[in-house]
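#struct-help
A.M.: can someone run this one for me? Single chain, 368 residues.
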Amino acid sequence: MSNSTEIKAKPNVIPQLDGLRAFAALLVVFSHTEKVGLPTVFPSLTGGFGVMLFFMLSGFLMGYLYLQKPIDRPAIGHYISARVARIAPIYLLSVTLAYIASYLIGTQFIYYIDTRSFLRLLAFSGSNHVFWSIPPEIQFYFTFLVFWYLLKTDRIIKALPFVILTAGVILMVRPIFPGISIPSHFHIFFLGVALSVLVRNGTTSRISPSFAALVQVISLAALFSASLRIYPSKAFIASIDWDDNAVFYGSVGAVICFGAFLLASTVHNRFGALVFANPFMRQIAKYSFSLYLLHEPVMAGTMNVLDEFGISRFVQIPIAVTLSLGVAALSFHLFESKMQDLLRVPLARLISALMPKARNTLAVKKQL
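D.P.: on it. Structure tokens below:
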């Protein structure tokens, strides 16, 4: 079988990666118990690891799903419409509901945002609460579109030294960029893209399942070691003038470790199938975005209600998490998935209709 045939035969869904998306969301949820007033399960560092995994998965999935496709009007229309329909409706609804609740409840509301912050969030440029991670995600989608175009027209190969230089400069000056900007997380997204190319090219077919499982186990051990402050400890981090942000976003080593974890998770193995590709985790993966956006007010509200009944806050944790999952499931089935179905086709047609010049340009390039 030829290499091109192997690439085409690869499935678009990798079950373990569904589970990783659920795992990332749960890391964020359990790192926020202290923030809403419940006992600490994991420190905030763990939530950062969850967001890093979200970013890397996003880079991987964009590369895995689209880089093997030609870049033409239908492909671009499908790409943009799928991204907009996936992110915008539930994000804008969550931000709007947070603003209304802020007006009604006041500054004690856990997602409190004022009018200025609300307008910035509507423009995908705000940094409040969990919403801060959406602007770099949106910026990456447009950056990936440029990368996809350059790759398909072979321009990126001709300018490869400049591309590598640009990546290096961005990494060197990364601290000067705000956290809601793509340069601040460039290395995370594009390592995911690079790993997707390896998987599509069949490189991972040489990795044995047992070795992939070993890498996953070691990666999880390292993750929870850092999360529980076993190593690196808080004192050690302070001694080298770092903070939690530097550990999970500024450390190239940490990003590479997560890359190894993601790459190993693309190889089917018993451990990964049991922990990540099981039906429960894959179901949570469907609700992961709503869960990420909505869990804090649900958990805080649950705590306030259960406190009235004198229920121990340690008992409140599983109740709050379960209710958060329930709200996320309702959000997905009643709003998120319906809006995706409603918007994708019309948006794709609209975008394709607005791109005649792109079609003509690409047609000329194909003839040359």
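A.M.: thanks! Confidence is low (pLDDT under 50) at residues 1-9, 358-368.
D.P.: also worth noting: The longest helix spans residues 313-353.
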